[in-house]
Write a structure and sequence with these properties.
two-stranded antiparallel ribbon, mainly alpha
């Protein structure tokens, strides 16, 4: 669970967290890059501080940010939820696609990503020059930083399209324009190529280092980035590297993946680690509380839709592992109460059972999985099908379904179609249910050009505003935060339609 849990000291926090600007400059005062990177221990603490940015959900130095609002609530998989319809109006804007450039979620997402990029740039520049830090360790630090820089640029480009490309830790001003979407992806690919070539494998690092970036993490993100661009040849190649590495296997119990006991399990490629250390602000994972039921212990946000529930095939065990409704008996023996959920469902993947529920309400210990083998197999299947490699696509797809049926041969029969379009739709369907409520559905709809149709159909079928306002050619991207346009003196151009 918690990694690096005693390593952030006040000096690093002051230097890195004290900045509150978008493209962070070195703070004024005695602390400089030179004094920050004097010893090997300094370099390690600087590396740790980059990972710290991964924890910035719900509230951070950049403000409120909820990744599930973009990945789940913007899609047909989830409704905002919360105390009432007026609770968290900034997320309601995202749900209903009446998003304004002053939405605080957008500015927080932007600032958080650039905060992480700034810290990564500092380590990339300075770690190789730290006296006493051996070359192998410095190389690892640099390439972990490149992975994390690529991670945040990928988050930015999928939300906003073209954004400023900042590859050094200091800037003279904020008056810089956007780089193109293509240039951002080129940098992501360059960073991930380097990281994949230099980082250790998961099996080669000690238990205490699980949660740090590895070769497989870089390969998985490279696959996803190429898939997002529709580059199926490279996506198939990168996914194939993960699958063929032998580093990962599917956990035989799907629900076990989302338990504390199952963290860093055989199929986990990259996850954000949390723990129960109260020494640091928001050291635990408050996200589980936000998405927990108001009838039990949570705030009731990000509630699964009936449409998602209907997407599961009959008796698919993944449905019960993904959602719960009133009266169900949960893993700790408690009887489910969904409170005021507007859909009648709560996401079970984020349920915190009694045996790991923390004394401090906020400090839930469950990690957030970002990439796992079940995802990569389905991304590989999609790319392979597009490339005409039908049998390879079927093999990967059915490997996921075989795990899902958990030994029950009467459910989830193998997919056998060799028709490209039919297989494409089967793979998309499997992606939806395999990693439902894991913040990827909206981006899948966008990258496959299905967002407008799926969301309009949802609005019509359920007679709801959700999805009805989605405008093709506009809402695939979020607006550039107005605060950042103002800082740039107008050099940042707003996205089309906003």
């Amino acid at each position: 669970m918690r990694r690096f849990n005693t390593l952030i000291v006040f000096t690093v926090v002051l230097v890195f967290l004290g900045c509150n600007s978008l493209l962070e400059q070195n703070p004024k005062g005695e602390l400089t890059e030179q004094t920050l990177f004097e010893t090997p221990d300094d370099a390690y603490k600087a590396l740790v501080s980059i990972y710290r940015v991964l924890h910035y959900e719900h509230q951070s130095p950049a403000g409120h940010i909820h990744y599930w609002a973009f990945g789940d609530v913007a899609s047909d998989d989830a409704m905002k939820g919360g105390e009432s319809g007026s609770d968290a109006p900034e997320i309601l804007q995202i749900q209903n696609f009446n998003i304004t450039a002053t939405n605080p979620e957008l500015n927080a997402a932007w600032k958080t990503a650039y905060r992480g990029i700034h810290r990564a740039n500092l380590v990339i520049k300075n770690a190789p020059n730290v006296e006493g830090l051996n070359q192998a360790t410095a190389t690892r630090y640099v390439n972990e930083s490149k992975f994390l820089r690529a991670y945040w640029y990928y988050d930015l480009v999928r939300k906003f399209g073209g954004v400023p490309l900042v590859l050094k830790p200091s800037l003279e001003s904020y008056e810089i324009p956007k780089n193109s979407r293509e240039e951002i992806f080129q940098q992501i690919e360059s960073d991930l190529e380097a990281a994949a070539g230099a980082l250790p494998t998961k099996s080669s690092i000690p238990q205490s280092e699980l949660g740090r970036a590895t070769k497989g993490a870089a390969q998985a993100l490279a696959c996803r980035a190429h898939l997002f661009q529709g580059d199926f040849v490279k996506a198939e190649d990168w996914c194939g590297r993960v699958i063929d590495s032998g580093e990962y296997s599917l956990d035989s119990d799907y629900s076990h993946i989302f338990s504390v006991d199952g963290e860093h399990g055989p199929g986990t490629i990259f996850s954000i680690s949390y723990g129960n250390n109260a020494a640091y602000w928001n050291d635990g994972n408050v996200d589980n509380i936000m998405r927990g039921s108001r009838g039990m212990y949570g705030w009731g946000f990000d509630t699964p839709t009936q449409d998602l529930v209907n997407a599961f095939e009959q008796d698919d065990p993944r449905k019960d592992a993904t959602v719960f409704s009133n009266g169900e008996i949960l893993v700790d023996g408690d009887t489910a109460d969904v409170g005021n959920s507007p859909t009648g469902y709560i996401c079970e993947k984020y349920y915190v059972p009694d045996d790991v529920f923390p004394a401090n309400y906020w400090d839930t210990p469950k990690d957030k999985i970002r990439y796992r083998l079940g995802m990569v197999l389905l991304w590989y299947a999609e790319a392979a099908n597009e490339n005409g490699h039908t049998q390879e696509a079927l093999q990967a797809l059915n490997r996921v379904r075989d795990r899902a049926r958990e030994g029950n041969s009467s459910i989830l029969p193998d997919i056998t179609t060799t028709n490209k379009q039919s297989l494409r739709e089967a793979i998309w369907q499997e992606q939806r249910v395999e990693y439902a409520m894991e913040q990827k559905r909206f981006y899948d709809l966008v990258r496959t050009d299905r967002a407008a149709k799926v969301l309009h159909d949802f609005a019509e079928e359920y007679n709801t505003q959700k999805g009805a306002n989605f405008t093709e050619g506009k809402n695939e991207l979020m607006p550039i935060p107005q605060a950042q346009i103002d800082l740039s003196q107008g050099n940042l151009e707003q996205n089309s339609g906003y």
